[in-house]
Design goal:
The structure is a single chain. This protein is an alpha/beta fold and 271 residues long. Helix 1 (18-25) links the parallel strand 1 and strand 2. It has helices spanning 18-25, 43-49, 62-73, 91-103, 172-188, 206-217, 225-236, 243-269; strands at residues 3-11, 32-36, 53-56, 77-84, 87-89, 108-117, 120-121, 129-136, 140-142, 151-153, 157-166. The strands form 2 sheets. Strands 1, 2, 3, 4, 5, 6, 7, 8 and 11 form a 9-stranded mixed β-sheet that branches. Strands 9-10 form a two-stranded antiparallel ribbon. The longest helix has 27 residues, at 243-269. The protein folds into 2 domains: 3-166, Alpha-Beta Complex (Spore Coat Polysaccharide Biosynthesis Protein SpsA, Chain A), CATH 3.90.550.10; 172-269, no CATH class. Helices cover 40% and strands 24% of the residues. Helix 7 packs antiparallel against helix 8.
Length: 271
């Protein structure tokens, strides 16, 4: 008989935060699986000490890594909860996940992730997005993209109250390095034939609407769309209410990051 639920965490050199993440996950299930990309620090040692099952696999991309472990667990557990190595479950979310497991309804669940940036949890500016993370086994896979990947489920979705706290404690240099890398992945990402991707839908869930808005954003001329996005995040979505940090986040995440992507696209097309 299948076990009820497994919590799956992807790791790489995550020793600074992984202990808190695992302890949070253990409030949902004693079955916690670590899929590690050959960390060079103490991540694996910490995970084993906390009685997690550890698998090692070379990292090619996020989608491939997630789909590998999803398929591995599909016939072993009824439910799967997926976390990044720096994500902590709120008490409200833990309670609501346990309610889902008790009721055992056939839905996939989207959860809001609160972003930690420059020492502060952001409340505005669209920083806290929804992500599908909890689902019955054999219902869901990750779309095959190099960047901005989302889970695609066969089931109807519901939202769960209570956030995941994204406790990314990296400094600003690391944040910029990561976004520089992600901008390259966004440009070089090529969709395979006959592969499924998440469709944008106005009357879909929060994630599907966000994908639709991104598709609309890409219709605007490159020279003005980062400014439109900044205006939307900072003024319409009230990013200014997060103070200086809100300004830095909206500026870097829209004007700088999106302009960087467009510049790399231009460079690629004009080589």
């Amino acid at each position: 008989m299948n076990k009820k639920i497994v919590v799956i965490i992807l790791t790489y050199n995550s020793e600074k935060i992984i202990k808190k993440t695992i302890k949070s996950a253990k409030k949902i299930s004693n079955d916690v699986i670590i899929l590690d990309s050959f960390s060079k620090d103490k991540t694996i040692k910490i995970a084993k000490k906390l009685k997690c099952k550890v698998f090692k696999r070379k990292f090619s991309n996020y989608s491939d890594q997630r789909n590998y472990i999803i398929r591995k667990c599909n016939n072993l557990y009824q439910w799967q909860l997926h976390l990044d190595s720096d994500e902590i479950l709120s008490n409200q979310l833990i309670k609501n996940i346990n309610n889902v497991l008790r009721d055992n309804e056939n839905f996939s669940y989207i959860i809001k992730r609160k972003v930690y940036f420059l020492g502060k949890f952001l409340k505005f500016g669209g920083a806290s997005n929804w992500h599908l993370r909890l689902f019955p086994s054999n219902s869901t896979l990750v779309e095959d993209k190099l960047y901005d990947q989302h889970y695609i489920t066969k089931l109807r979705t519901r939202s769960l109250e209570g956030p995941i706290f994204d406790m990314n404690t990296s400094n600003l240099n690391n944040w910029i390095d990561n976004h520089n890398k992600w901008s390259t992945l966004d440009v070089t990402s090529k969709l395979k034939k006959n592969k499924k991707i998440l469709k944008g839908k106005f009357f879909g869930n929060n994630i599907e609407r966000l994908r639709l808005y991104k598709n609309i954003y890409l219709l605007f001329p490159t020279i003005i769309r980062p400014f439109i996005l900044f205006f939307y995040k900072y003024f319409i979505l009230l990013g200014f209410l997060d103070g200086k940090v809100g300004f830095y986040y909206c500026f870097l995440n829209s004007l700088w990051f999106r302009t960087l992507i467009d510049a790399k696209n231009y460079e690629k097309k004009n080589k």
